[in-house]
Design brief:
The chain starts with a helix and ends with a helix. The chain has helices at about 1-35, 75-80, 80-100, 115-130, 145, 175-185, 190-200; strands at about 40-55, 55-65, 75, 105-110, 135-140, 155-160, 165-170. Helix 1 (about 1-35) crosses helix 3, helix 3 runs parallel beside helix 4 and helix 6 crosses helix 7 (about 190-200). By secondary structure, it is an alpha+beta fold. It contains 7 helices and 7 strands; from the N terminus they run H-E-E-E-H-H-E-H-E-H-E-E-H-H.
Length: about 200
């Protein structure tokens, strides 16, 4: 009985800390998302008590979200689009990276569903994270994000007689220009795309 009472006391202390942190996360996440093309975003962390504590405490936590002005908050997994999820995940990882000394962050196609100006802003966030002594690895199909990297690797597959083999290799500056131009083109490389790629890289 004493152990159970201690468990409940520890769970209550954890809930209190979580609720305090949740207010900061809600505020910071909103501030991150507004410049990423979500001016009316609402985000709330909802707490519900479990009947009995488990190894994570007494809390059952839901993330509620709306991208629309005065829109009803709903479970993020049910209402957020692919592009919205991408921006939310990038923002959350940015907040976590600022709070904890993570040596490496890997973004696997976190730019899904975004393009243009929003992609460029996401690239700036990744560059900012990397600028604080962290390694950022981003798997991307967007030139705005690929151009921000200090190094650029190409991943490609090759069919052999027996199997399909994946390869990765670093690109030279000229290869990088062509790769970015290819990302911007609909197949045939144009002089305009090559010049645009050079401008993006500043070379």
């Amino acid at each position: 009985k004493q152990a159970y009472e201690q468990l409940l006391a520890q769970a209550a202390a954890l809930t209190s800390l979580r609720k305090k942190a949740a207010l900061d996360i809600e505020k910071e996440l909103t501030e991150h998302l507004i410049p990423l093309g979500m001016p009316n975003v609402q985000f709330k962390i909802e707490f519900n008590a479990r009947k009995e504590p488990d190894s994570t405490g007494m809390d059952r936590i839901s993330f509620l979200f709306s991208a629309n002005k005065n829109g009803a908050l709903q479970n993020i997994a049910e209402v957020a689009s692919g592009g919205e999820i991408s921006r939310i995940m990038l923002s959350l990882k940015s907040i976590i990276a600022a709070a904890k000394a993570l040596p490496t962050l890997i973004f696997d196609e976190i730019d899904t569903g975004v393009s243009g100006t929003i992609a460029a802003r996401m690239a700036d966030i990744m560059a900012d994270i990397a600028g604080h002594g962290r390694q950022v690895i981003s798997i991307t199909h967007l030139p705005q994000i690929a151009a921000k990297g200090t190094a650029h690797y190409k991943v490609y597959k090759e069919d052999t007689a027996d199997a399909t083999v994946s390869h990765i290799r670093p690109l030279t500056t000229e290869e990088r220009i062509n790769e970015l131009a290819q990302m911007m083109s609909a197949g045939t490389l144009s002089e305009a795309a090559i010049n645009n790629a050079r401008e993006m890289l500043g070379v």
